[in-house]
């Protein structure tokens, strides 16, 4: 019965494709107004109700109202930019409680932006944005406002750390200035949350906050990071030639969008016969990119895209830019000053567990005030997103309800973060256990429909 329901939900989404919705690359709302660069960081430049209702292909997604806000930010090298953020107001809303949820856009194309993919009528290519909306439901039911920014920016700079972190922090600033429109109080408390690609934006926001937005410390309660990407080279090495190989061209195009010198050196080192194929990495969203590039080898094997192999990632230009966008290479100036919760699966085949373990040891040695690491001994990347969310949401809700985070560092290995993380309520367990695990098999494996169309 559950799969039948999913099938009908899918048919409903196909019907939604008939509803006109202007893609971001053609939507003037996404473009900053003249002289926007003169506005302070976080300033609201434009506001509108979301053009269409927010939807989810798997269940009814009911909220009271939603808006899109264009706000001032800056990219990785300090140049002015503007970011679109979606704000969701639930029924029985609490204007003093805000969850900043960074979804995983994981693509280098503006038309894959969450603000677009969240909406009724968005193409099937943005399906992962709607799937990620499932994780917002517990917060919305409790009356939390949700803010979710297109933190990659108009250039879609996937894995560009500073760009993403700046956008998240400026999004919080904008939300706290939006009371006349949204009702959110300027003194509201805010928690950050992100998994996998979303952890890049959330993690960089936590690291940049002390220097980039010191005034937000009074608002930020903490940051939950799952599948935490601390070293993008490690992800390239473990995924090359495998199921998640598509992350490599998507990420390389993302950095090329942010750094022209990166793009130049990358193109100079590419096998000419692979150019057209590799270019698809700038056209496809996450799900379609995974399918299109599945099992391709970019740095290994006899028919690799880059003849230099993994050595290219250590090239003077390429290596420096990659290092500048890895949290693991930041110095103690960027030590988070807000409580941090890490959750990760031991068998993660996308983000090796050694990365989060290293950052835990590094931050603890530098004297972080509160860092809790919940390592799950049974799950890999996709599974931990689901079961670990129960622990993350419990940790976040505890902070909003006045519980004190742990002092210092605490590292715990558990068989399962859903069943054994302390304090997870039965309703939370049942909600996340109710996820249809095979949905991700459908999306990534193409069992329910022809994924090549996305």
From TrEMBL:
EC number: 3.1.1.3
Superkingdom of origin: Eukaryota
Enzyme class: hydrolase
Any one GO molecular function term: triacylglycerol lipase activity
Catalyzed reactions per annotation: a triacylglycerol + H2O = a diacylglycerol + a fatty acid + H(+)
Family to which the UniProt record says this protein belongs: Belongs to the AB hydrolase superfamily. Lipase family.
PANTHER family: LIPASE 5, PTHR34853
Protein name: Lipase
Gene source species: Candida theae
């Amino acid at each position: 019965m559950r799969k039948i329901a999913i099938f009908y939900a899918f048919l409903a989404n196909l019907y939604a494709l008939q509803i006109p919705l202007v893609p971001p690359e053609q939507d003037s709302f996404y473009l900053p107004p003249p002289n926007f660069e003169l506005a302070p960081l976080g300033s609201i430049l434009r506001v509108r109700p979301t053009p269409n209702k927010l939807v989810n292909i798997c269940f009814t997604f009911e909220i009271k109202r939603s808006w899109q806000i264009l706000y001032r930010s800056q990219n990785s090298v300090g140049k002015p930019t503007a970011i679109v953020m979606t704000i969701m107001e639930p029924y029985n809303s609490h204007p003093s409680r805000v969850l900043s949820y960074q979804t995983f856009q994981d693509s280098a194309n503006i038309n894959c932006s969450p603000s677009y993919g969240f909406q009724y009528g968005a193409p099937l290519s943005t399906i992962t944005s709607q799937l990620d909306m499932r994780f917002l439901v517990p917060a919305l039911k409790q009356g939390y406002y949700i803010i979710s920014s297109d933190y990659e920016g108009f250039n879609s700079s996937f894995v560009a750390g500073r760009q993403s972190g700046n956008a998240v922090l400026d999004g919080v600033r904008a939300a706290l200035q939006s009371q006349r429109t949204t009702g959110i109080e300027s003194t509201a408390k805010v928690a950050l949350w992100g998994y996998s690609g979303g952890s890049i934006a959330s993690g960089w926001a936590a690291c940049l906050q002390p220097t980039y937005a010191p005034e937000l410390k009074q608002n930020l309660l903490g940051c939950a990071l799952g599948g935490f990407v601390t070293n993008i080279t490690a992800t390239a090495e473990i995924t090359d030639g495998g199921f998640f190989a598509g992350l490599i061209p998507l990420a390389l195009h993302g950095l090329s969008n942010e750094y022209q010198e990166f793009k130049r050196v990358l193109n100079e080192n590419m096998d000419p016969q692979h150019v057209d194929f590799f270019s698809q990495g700038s056209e496809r969203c996450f799900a379609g990119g995974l399918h299109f590039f599945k099992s391709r080898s970019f740095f290994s094997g006899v028919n690799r895209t880059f003849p230099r192999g993994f050595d290219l990632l250590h090239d003077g230009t390429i290596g420096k830019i990659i290092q500048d966008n890895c949290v693991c290479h930041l110095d103690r100036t960027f030590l988070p000053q807000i409580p941090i919760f890490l959750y990760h699966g031991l068998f993660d085949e996308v983000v090796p567990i050694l990365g989060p373990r290293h950052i835990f040891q590094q931050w603890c040695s530098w004297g972080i005030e509160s860092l809790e690491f919940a390592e799950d001994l049974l799950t890999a990347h996709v599974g931990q997103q689901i079961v670990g969310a129960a622990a993350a949401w419990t940790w976040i809700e505890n902070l909003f309800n006045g519980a004190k985070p742990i002092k210092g560092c605490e590292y715990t290995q558990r068989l399962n973060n859903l069943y054994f993380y302390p304090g997870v309520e039965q309703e939370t367990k049942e909600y996340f256990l109710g996820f249809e695990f095979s949905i991700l098999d459908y999306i990534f494996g193409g069992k329910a429909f022809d994924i090549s169309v996305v």
